[in-house]
Specification:
By secondary structure, the protein is α/β, with parallel strands linked by helices. The protein has one domain: 3-Layer(aba) Sandwich (Stationary-phase Survival Protein Sure Homolog, Chain: A), CATH 3.40.1210. Helices cover about 25% and strands about 25% of the residues. The chain has six helices and eleven strands. The strands form two sheets. Strands 3-4-2-1-5-6-7-11-8 form a nine-stranded mixed beta sheet, sandwiched between helices. It has a two-stranded antiparallel sheet with strand order 9-10. A hairpin with a 2-residue loop joins strand 3 and strand 4. The chain is globular. It starts with a strand and ends in a 17-residue tail after the last strand.
């Protein structure tokens, strides 16, 4: 198996090393793992691509490259330049430092890479590690994803799910904020929405009197509907959410037929 891995935390991120270990286990001794990751952190860029300007690519080692662009740029670089001799069989993005459950999924560069993989017709999975008081101060905060990551990917791939929908599936996997031994299992659930949680901005003035806006986040442990990704993560379960790039609100199409 030929696996392309990327992330949005950057080429030096701790979670990328975890992903490399997961990918090597999946690829096996006869497989290949290729890393194409952002040169700098790209958190929150979603599915952005550098359409209006070029991006520099640098090789740091055998099958290891950094791109001065977004995670989706890295996927494009991996498919059409780095691995142009043969497309990857699987694209893995992460392991993200922090959850991409709930509304975070809409902003996630980790999932932006997986979405691009799906648009290219390649199986793609984004993996993220929820942080909380039970795992943030462990020697390895990524313990849950490191120990359970390869197994859950195997289970997803083993389903061999097929669909006539032109938008191919990709998967959002979030590991709970607990040590590996405390993981209760896996649940396949829809994306949730944390109550009252939104991004915002905070104004700060520097000593030179210039003003800057910093983006602020919301409470990551705020409740959401039961049996959604946020809820099951906080209960100690790994969440698996199948996703598509189709943004259509299918449940509302008939409601608006009257404007035709």
């Amino acid at each position: 198996m030929r696996i392309l891995i990327t992330n949005d935390d950057g080429i030096q991120a701790e979670g990328l090393s975890v992903m490399e270990d997961i990918a090597k286990e999946l690829a096996g001794p006869d497989g290949e793992v290729w890393t194409v990751a952002p040169a700098f952190e790209q958190s929150g860029v979603a599915h952005c691509i550098s359409y209006a300007h070029p991006t520099m690519i640098t090789q740091f080692g055998e099958r290891r490259f950094a791109v001065e662009g977004s995670p989706a740029d890295c996927v494009l670089a991996g498919i059409y330049e780095v691995m142009k001799g043969g497309a990857p069989d699987l694209i893995l993005s992460g392991v993200n430092k922090g959850n991409n459950s709930g509304e975070n999924a809409a902003y996630s560069g980790t999932l932006g890479a997986a979405l691009e993989g799906a648009l290219q017709g390649i199986p793609a999975i984004g993996l993220s590690q929820f942080y909380g008081p039970d795992n943030a101060f462990l020697d390895n905060p990524f313990e849950a994803s490191a120990q359970h990551g390869a197994d859950i990917i195997r289970k997803i791939l083993a389903t061999k799910a097929e669909s006539s929908n032109p938008y191919k599936l990709f998967f959002n996997v979030n590991f709970p904020p607990v040590p590996a031994g405390a993981v209760k299992g896996t649940k396949v659930v829809p994306q949730g929405r944390r109550a009252g949680t939104n991004f915002g901005v905070e104004l700060q003035e520097r000593p030179n009197r210039r003003k800057y806006l910093w983006v602020t986040g919301g409470d990551q442990r705020a409740p959401s509907h039961p049996e959604t990704d946020v809820a099951v993560n906080l209960e100690g379960y790994i969440s698996v959410t199948p996703m598509r790039a189709d943004y259509t609100a299918h449940d509302m199409l008939d409601t608006f037929r009257g404007i035709e």
